[in-house]
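If you are new to this repository, start here. Below is one unmodified record pulled from the training split, so you can see the exact layout before writing a loader.
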Amino acid sequence: MNSIKRNALAPLCLLMTQISIAQLTIGGEFRPRTEYRNGFGSLISEAAEPGLATSTRARLNVDYKMDAYQFYLSLQDVMVWGENRQLLPDDENNSFAVFEAWAQLNLGSGWSAKLGRQVLSCDDQRILGEVDWTQQARNHDAALVRYAKERFLLDLALAFNQDFDNPSGFQSVGNAYMTTGFFSYKTMQMLYLKQKWENWSASLVLLNNGFQNFNDQTNPDGLSNLQTVGTHLTYSKGNFGLTANAFLQTGERQGELDVKAAYLLGLDVNYKASDKIGLSAGLEVISGNDGQTADETSAFFPLYGTNHKFNGFMDYFYVGNHANSVGLFDIHASTNVKLGEKSSLLAKVLNFRGEQDLPSGENGLGTEVDLVYSQSFKGYGIKIGYSHLFPSDGMYELKGITEADTASTQNWAWIMLVIKPKLFTTTKTD
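And here is the target side for that same chain:
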């Protein structure tokens, strides 16, 4: 009888041992955002009506950690209020998705391997970032090998994308990758190195993206490879801080478009004036197309970065637009004021000019003012934003609309609620 009891208890003891060295966290996110768009992304005409809509991002996140590995799953749906009719049996917009699904193997001595759908984010997210402002956000299907020790970090990411939705079509075109647009790549190789010191940090990014080449019918599996190389530097001491970016692009974009010495240079200076006031000023120069042939360009594009974070919150540049244009010269200044223990106000002013002149000789594009108020409560937060664009003559020419046909006011306002509940967690015990 005792032997039977011992045999019955053995699996239970094994299960308890597994639970004792594991940690499970289940959380979620509920993020509705209402936007009033009256010139967001591009100039709105006098004849057009402003847009008002609400979208919601809902996520369920599962994080399971053991000493040997970590498993993470994030399910997501993005819903625009009213996009589906009543009693619709299916989501006709097909917005439900697996945002992240990966496993990370801990290999020891600072090494790990992360496999699956994941976020790739580096430094200030200028070239690689989650793009969390968008409700759908950005992910990559990739393998990431990491080495981290003390103040040194090395990441090597590799990806090979394919589509098996139509097996017969897939076989007929070999390994051709049929997904296009928004710099969707077939192959990707990324090496990221970062070193920290007492006051300094420096990182190096080497990124190659292979885009499917459909122009060469004799080589349907051919690739147009674009290389992006650059560094991100930070310095901080006392109340003073500095950040700098320097990136170069060369190779070929989608469609065998030759890229010749395209560049991005940025510098920002930060100063903490008091416990409640932070000041910042800086500039960014992004090269544009300076009149090469139709097969060549010197225009830089920041690819997979969180571009909403840069060059104004109204997204007039490099957010699904401005991909092969006159470039950008952006001078900006901002202040972040702590209004209370859980509230703050960000105010930012940006002046835009083309890095090259437009055909008319104009290069002034305008000035944008961004305001964001943030308030945290117990368990949730609210953000409220307002942006106003004052376009210059060059902006009308760039966007292909006359000043007479453009609405006199170009603005954008939004309010967003963020709730991130922790639904369940276990306590790890050694």
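Two things worth knowing about this chain: Confidence is low (pLDDT under 50) at residues 1-6, 8-18. The chain is about 5% helix and 50% strand.
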